[in-house]
Amino acid sequence: MKVKTLICNGKGLDPFRFADMNSLALEVASEFDVSYAAVHPQLSAEGGNQVLQEVLRSAEDDSDTFVMVCAGAEDARTKLFKQAVRDAEFDSKNCLSAEVCEKIDDSILDRIGERLRKLADSNYSRH
Fold it and tell me: Which CATH number characterizes residue 108's domain?
């Protein structure tokens, strides 16, 4: 199982108050078994949406690859994912999300770890 992790540093996140976006991607990649982790300033903006779609398309032919987007509020993530997944023709079962809005680094890492454990448990039970 491979997981590509995108972290959005959009409107709901205050990097100076809550999280160090300069080191967060490195912490995620170091702490968890992910293919990579990257931070984007705003995945819901046009350029960010294109990045998300390109990541989804790069994973579409591999049913063992998952894309996890860590972003703000659930309603915004749902809207963003729905359109991006549809446009990229990506299997929505392989797209995960985690809310990281107004969380400090440790809380963000906890949320990501929790989602990855759930994925591993569900993936393990499918095989």
Answer: 3.40.50
List pLDDT tens digits, range 83-114. Answer: 888 888 898 889 888 877 766 666 888 888 99
Q: Tally the domains of the chain.
A: 1
Domain coverage including residue 67: 2-126
Whether 21 and 34 have beta carbons less than 8 Å apart is answered as no
Q: Annotate 75-107 with b (16+ C-beta within 10 A) or e (fewer).
A: ebbeebbeebbeebebeeebbbbbbbbebebee
Is 0.90 topped by the overall pTM?
no
The structure tokens listed for 78 are 């749902």
